[in-house]
Amino acid sequence: MKEFLAPFGRLRLWPAVGAVAAAGFFWVLGLLSGVDFSLWQLVLLALAALLANSVVNGMRADTEKAPELIVRTVNEPSWRPFTEVNRWEDRLIFAEAKPGRFEGTNAKRQLVELAAERLRLRRGLSLTGQPDECRALLGERTFQFLTGPVPDCPTPWQLDEHLQAIEEI
Fold first, then answer.
1. Nearest-CA neighbor of 116 among 144, 89, 146, 145?
2. What angle do CA 100, 104, 105 make, to 5 degrees?
3. Closest to 163 measured CA to CA, from 93, 112, 103
4. Rounded Cα distance, 11 and 52, in Å
5. What is the rounded CA–CA span in Å between residue 106 and residue 37?
6. Longest distance between any two alpha carbons in the chain, whole Å
7. Ranges of the chain whose pLDDT falls below 70
């Protein structure tokens, strides 16, 4: 029963008796002044006011502090801290999900741009302008991957091989 009445706060017997007595007092006062009230309506009004007061008191802020809220989610800042790496990962996942269409994806285009930029900045070479020097520097497989048509996304070990060759520039 306590759980059922919990939203109403602490409702005791004596305040209810006092509310009924106050309703009786106002009924008698009304009769003496010439106003005709129904006693049951006044009692019901007094009990409704007592119930409303009890509900409002039950909604007051607690005096005890609540325990500290600890939330653990997968989306903590340390989960995927490097935004650019996450974008690459997402693009590669998308490219892997579309077999036969790797050539036109952003992942392939950005890998080619990255390799071309590294070659230009560190070695002064161009993928299109000096293909023989680039082929010798990158290796045949990586050079073909960057310049030739590649229909499918490379496997993780192939991608690792290509990325290592690009990093060694």
1. 146
2. 95
3. 112
4. 11
5. 83
6. 116
7. 1-12, 60-64, 66, 69-85
Contact criterion met (CB below 8 Å) for 135 and 150: no
Q: What is the pLDDT of residues 15-35, one digit of tens each?
A: 778 888 888 998 899 889 988
pLDDT at 116: 92
DSSP string computed for 89-128: HHHHHHHHHSTT--TTSHHHHHHHHHHHHHIIIII---TT
The per-residue pLDDT for 4 is 53
| Rounded Cα–Cα distance for residues 153 and 31 (Å) | 94
**Contact status, residue 101 vs residue 132, Cβ threshold 8 Å:** no
Phi, psi for residue 162 in degrees, rounded to 5: -65, -45
What 8-state DSSP symbol labels residue 75? T
Find tokens 């502090």 and name the residue: 65
Give per-residue pLDDT as tens, 116-130: 999 999 989 888 889
pLDDT at 36: 85
Residue 27: its H or E element: helix 13-33
Q: Name, in order, each residue with C-beta under 8 angstroms of 106's C-beta and a sequence gap of 6 or more.
A: 91
Query: Can you give the pLDDT at residue 160?
Result: 87
pTM confidence score: 0.48
